Structure formats: structure tokens, C-alpha cells
## 1
Amino acid sequence: AIAVAVIALTTLPLLVASTVPLLALAVFVSGVAISPTFITAFGLIERRVPEAMLTEGVTWVMTGIGIGMALGSFAAGAVVDAFGAQSGFLVSVAAGVIALTTVLIGQRSLAGPHCDLTGCEASAVPAQ
């Protein structure tokens, strides 16, 4: 959630970048935030997906990333055509907000017990 929040926050400077050097700096800062998020996501996949299905889990995530980038490019292009170049950055901000909301909603289920093909680990219950 923290990594995705950082990505969402780094989209905001894109809205106020008024020159090419400022835009380059804003894109650089936003790009730097992507790697920690990917590392965290792949660590999560490794912990939550059964070992026998790890390749499939990574493939699904990479496919989702590709689809998201394609849809984002499509949406940004449509917004730029309709409202101008500066408005295209609103798509990045909206995507950041949607991603953060999705992570926050799903965070509890992702933090649940570890499961694999043989079942889920029992949660520790304190003795009474």
C-alpha cells in the first residue's frame, strides 16, 4: 500500500509541470517509484501463490500490467485529443487513485493466512 501510495503521489507533479525540464524531472521521479512497487508485488506473488503455480501467477500479473498500460495509453490519447495535452496527465492521476483504492480494499485479504495446494496455515489462536 505504501509503494502504491508513493506512485499515486508522484503523478501529481505532472499536473503542474509547465516546462519540458520540469516535466522530465516529474516523469523521472514517478518512474523511480515504479521499481519498488514491482519488487513488492512480485514478493507478494511469491508469498501468496502456491509454488507449483508461481509461473502462472507471475504471468497473470505481467499480463495485467501490459493490459493496464495499453488501456492507460488509449485513455490518455483520447483525453489529449478531446481536452488537450496537459489534461492527459489526469489519466495518470486517476490511475494512481484507482490503484491505491484497489490495494487498500484488498489489503486485508492479501494479509490473510498463507495458502498452498495442500491448504491454508492455521492462524495462531491464544490459549485461554
Note: The chain is about 75% helix and 5% strand.
## 2
Amino acid sequence: GQGQDELFSALAGSIRPSGGTIEVDGSPAKFSHPIDAIRAGIAYVPGDRAEALAMQRSVRENIALPFSAALRNWGPINMRRERAKVVSAIERLQIDTRAQGEVQRLSGGNQQKVTIARWIAADARTILCFDPTRGIDVGTKQEIYHLVRELAGHGKSVLFYTSELEEVQRVCDRVIVIFGGRVVDIFPVEEADEPALMRAAYGLPRGAKADIGILADPQSPSSGTNP
């Protein structure tokens, strides 16, 4: 509720920002629709897989969606190229395709891997991952952590929001903390221990002592004399 939903939605082209600018390669960009962000190389991976997947379609069809979306005019799709990219993405993410007749038959972890594989196949340059490991098994979480690090190592940009603080140090290089809809702190992951994250998340300086009393409502009977 600190603005992370709106931030990702604006970057993905789902909503128009009320202020500020979005820049791609140093040039201002305006997105009136998600397709504008996709064409700029920005892809969105939501935490709710049902938002991103056509559940009654196959693994291949779900991963190949960006190839048809990229067509500006009617015309044939290069099926050989599409198939090669889809197979490569499936192998790279080790997606279980035994039930590939319908994506809805896959486990939650494999569904999330299909969502990410789509944008790997499409060669997106920036991937917005919104709580991508929510509700999936520990083994698949580790695979996604490794994949994110691999993508970053190959020059991709990944904006990774997580509701689990321990994931920050496993995945990120830099940490951006939002409070009240504004960025209040940016620091390297080496400094992102849990106390520092919690202080920043409550709008406190990182050097401040953790004292829950300063967060209390001074008018509340339970807040005592703390300011």
C-alpha cells in the first residue's frame, strides 16, 4: 500500500502516471497501453499468474503470445523461429510440459515459469517482477532467484518487488524503498539487513534506533509519553 502497485502499473503501461517521467535509454517515453511498454522492451510479470496466462491454452501458445502481439500488420508468423525460441525458453527454465495441453494443469511454480519464459523468448530488456515467488514451492523459488541473477548477468534489467524481506539479499543489487508513494531511500544490498529495511519501510532514517514508540499515535492512550 505504499505505491508499489501504482509504480509497476505505470511502468507496464497499465495506468498513466499522475506526475514525473519515464525514460527509456535516456529518452522520455509515454505509455498509453501495455503494448507501448512491451514495444519499448519492458515486460511485466505479475504475482497473480491468472492475470498473465491464458489458462486453457497450451504452454507453447502462452509463451508465444508476444510474437503475435508484435505484429503491426496482418501477415504470417515465422513458425520455425517461434518454435525454436519457445523450446529454448522451456529448456532454460526447465518447465514441466507433461501437462502442456492446458497451462491450468501445471503447478503454480511452473505457471510462473511460463510467465517469465514468455518474456525471455521475446528478448525483453527490462522485466518487472511483482512478487513473482508468492505461493510457489521452495525449489521453484530458488530457480527463479537463479534466473533473475542470470538475466542481470547478461545485461537485462530486473525490477523485483517482494513481500519477503529475506529475498532482497538473495536477488537484488540495489534496494529502493517506497514510503507514502515516494522513494525514501536507495542503498546497496550489502546494507539491506532486516532492521535497515524495516526502518526505511516506516520512513525512518537508516541510522535511527528501532523504537516502536516513535511510530505510535501521540493522541493514543497506549502511546504514553513517546513523541
Note: Residues 209-227 have pLDDT under 50 and may be disordered.
